[in-house]
Amino acid sequence: MGYALRFYKRINIIIDFLLEMPRVRRTKVIISVMSILGIILGAVFIIPGWFHKDKSNEYWAYISPELVGMDSQILDNMIYDVEINSYNVYSILVIRNGCIVNEWYARFFHKDYLFRLFSVSKSITSTLIGIAVDKGFISNLNKSVLDFFTDKDIANMDSQKEAITIEHLLTMTTGLEWPEYYPYDDPRNPYFDWLASKDHVEYVLNRTMIAIPGQEFNYNTGATHLLAAILERATNMSTLDFAIKYLFSPLHIYDYYLLHDPQGVGCGGDGFFLRARDMAKIGYLFLKNGKWEENQIVSEYWVNISTSSKVNLGSYGYGFQWWIFQNDSCYQALGYGGQVISVHYTLNLLVVFTGMEYNFDYSSYLINSYILPSLM
After folding, report:
1. Which residues does 300 contact at the CB level (< 8 Å), separation at least 6?
2. Which terminus of the chain faces fewer neighbouring Cβ atoms within 10 Å, N or C?
3. Residue 164 phi/psi, 5° resolution?
4. Over 19-40, what HEC string results?
5. What is the model's pTM?
6. Domain boundary, last residue among 32, 57, 82
7. Rounded to an integer, what is the distance from CA 171 to the centroid of its chain?
8. In this prediction, what percent of the chain has a pLDDT beyond 70?
9. Are 238 and 322 in the same domain?
């Protein structure tokens, strides 16, 4: 109340001061003040919109599905299905031959909404590692992970832990005990204990070894967090700054956010926020073998090695933080709740989903029931 009263008094003093001025002078002062406020408001609200929001969206052109060999009625039926059954889908984006053929947002969401990507972040972090390798910041993938953290007092040390390499982090074959396959509310799942820890990097490094590195797949968000920490130490840049300079800006991505751990390390495993259309740019970059317009953003070699199965998991595989479905000529970035970038490389087709559906794999259902059948 005291602050409000003082503010009110100061406003009254300014008004009284203006009223005591000669009329012409008072008018000039008011015009000057309004001009300055206009410039400030323009700089804060209008100019960023010109250079960021519109630029980021202008890449994608709309086209009739029939012009690229897709049935618009089947795609419309997909949207009807989503809406009538109230699936927890927030957005759908279907792109073929580089053009949007279908774009839909649930109520309260829109094309400029920043969605949390959850584990789709892993595929972005892997891409950043590839760029760092391309540019010589990281010499090779066989470097020991512990070499980057000599300042840490690491528990449960043994020769197996010393053998963990960057490639083991990329393929989720670290050998560290990390049962993230349990439900998140299961006390055996280390995820929330890890988030509550004071040092996220050290927490991961302190885990005991249960397998020889490279032998067993074990999904581990902490492993990707180590990749982000290695990126920051190798480049002397934050994960977000590196992403902005070498990935986001070249792709004309201007709206983003990244969560950080207590030490300020970017949460590369699950902390990126992007718009659906900008998620599509990540997928399209890979569909075009790492090239965007005339610029090679990440090497074709990295794209190929990242999207080739390094771990055989039965009907699918795992590359460098991408899920590989060779029988479907497809690879995907997958995130908790239904965040998806699905790249169908033989069809020149790209699909992006966001949502928060826990009990139903709506992305596979919609792709197999509508999107693929819509191809004429």
Report:
1. 289, 290, 291
2. N
3. -70, 130
4. HHCCHHHHHHHHHHHHHHHHHH
5. 0.85
6. 57
7. 18
8. 85
9. yes
